[in-house]
UniProtKB/TrEMBL annotation:
It comes from Geranomyces variabilis. InterPro entries: Cu-oxidase-like_N (IPR011707), Cu-oxidase_2nd (IPR001117), Cu-oxidase_C (IPR011706), Cu-oxidase_fam (IPR045087), Cu_oxidase_CS (IPR033138), Cu_oxidase_Cu_BS (IPR002355), Cupredoxin (IPR008972). Keywords: Copper, Metal-binding, Oxidoreductase, Signal. Coiled coil: none annotated. Residues 37-150, 161-317, 399-527 form the Plastocyanin-like domain. Belongs to the multicopper oxidase family. Residues 1-20 form the signal peptide. This is Uncharacterized protein.
Amino acid sequence: MRLFGLWIWILSSVLALAAAEPASRVAVKSFDLNITESIGAPDCYAKTIRYINGKYPAPAIHVDQSDRLRVTVRNGLESEAISIHFHGIRQLGTPWYDGTSHVSQNAIPAGKEMTLEFSVKDQSGTFLYHAHNAMQELSIFGAVIINEPAEVRKTLHYDDERTIVLSDSWHNSSLAQETGLLGAPFKWVGDPQSLLTNGITLSPNCSYLPMPQGATTGGYAVTIVEPKKTYRFRIINAATLNFLRFDIPGHTMRVIEADGTLLKPTKIDHLELNAGQRYSVLITADQEAKDYWMSSQAMWRKASAQNGWSILRYSNAKTQESTPPAALPARGPEIPSWMEDQLRPLKPPRVPQQEGDTRFYNFSQVALADGTVRWQVADRVYELPDQALLLQHYNNTIKNLPAASKPVSIERGRVVDIVLQSSVGNLNGVCEEHPFHLHGHSFWDLGGGNGTWHSGIKADVNNAILRDTVTVYPYRSAYFQTPLPAGTSCGWRRIRFVADNPGAWLLHCHIVAHLVMGMAESFIVGESNIPALPPHFPIF
Ligand code: C2O
Ligand code: CU
């Protein structure tokens, strides 16, 4: 009898396991993001900062490709509404969880909460999450890491990994910045006071006040490595203005990933990454066991905060550093490496044939009659609607939107080409760099060039990298070069994507100040195929 019982038990356990197998592949991983604000001094200057679960920057989120994420965002700010966007995550089939205020949802008011739930099954690599309401990107950002499946990981040949989040930081508040940007006379945000690594650095003028327990205070981030091991450094540019170069002295970097796409390992002597971009580089700790000063510094602008230091420390280092070398090299005309054009995908990209016309987006700065300054894209200064576009789709009110806010409609499944064409505005004769980011879709980067794009320029489909943020470089007349007359073309970049994700999506410059000034376009993809809103979706 006992034996019989055991048999039944074994049999039923085996059956249960077999039945559970497919279901157990999708694990739901829950994350609580409790947003609060209090005093902190990331670069040793005391100001109000935003913490997630008491951490600045926000804690990293690690998941496997097969996981489903359930993220509860609790807005514990004093008065500001907020939303949290997972940058580069496609939200395939879940457009309402993109976390983009005015587009996929209404912002979560202070004191309220919301749960996002989505899968990441077609994506892996290095991503980030950040606030996405007005100038808030400045204040909340953290890493998102989606592990490749074990058999892919093995082929990348590294022993361990480290995450390095770079950002830029101002001493004034994001609200003050926004007021200046949108007001008359126009007041530009200026260069950041500090470049942070993993949320901290030191600036020359410290103003530590009495700090609450656990407050972030300035210092230099330390990344510890063990001798002889090879590491995958995941480097994230969470800056809101600065295009950064990142240096690790004495060590060779081999870049292997860009925005979630694996690359042919390529040796680089420094990394260049634009706001919103992420790269993985391999480095081997095969040098003298000591501390090395890593640095980040702004490119393409006249000035850079000079405090973008952090430490690479060998675990067996005999002495430890505390004072960085005197200065970073002075700003000047950049040595044009056009790093994005040097990268090659690991696997031949399967770029679809172009369909239809190329959408040509010319953008430049404009001074409006009321004394304000804006950025226009294809002759329009984009204004985000009050009520989220996606919600307006369900309410059937998109047709009533003013021209400045109307989304462009794209049929589901269309292959869309976009040329991002940068021109000198009528203001300062300067060509700027612009990091362009698309929501809901990754796109193939079909390359860029100087001057004006024309249809005779062939797209480089064989080397296209599938990514979500690309640079329109200032090929000439950057801040430190001779100004050009208004209307002169600076340069362009071409992207292609398959509009396979019905929803409402933004294409915008990832310089937050530019986005606030209107440098955006919105799309409604597959209008008649947008799935129904989940029940109880918060409207706020
Ligand atoms: Cu990283 Cu629209 O955002
Ligand atoms: Cu821009």
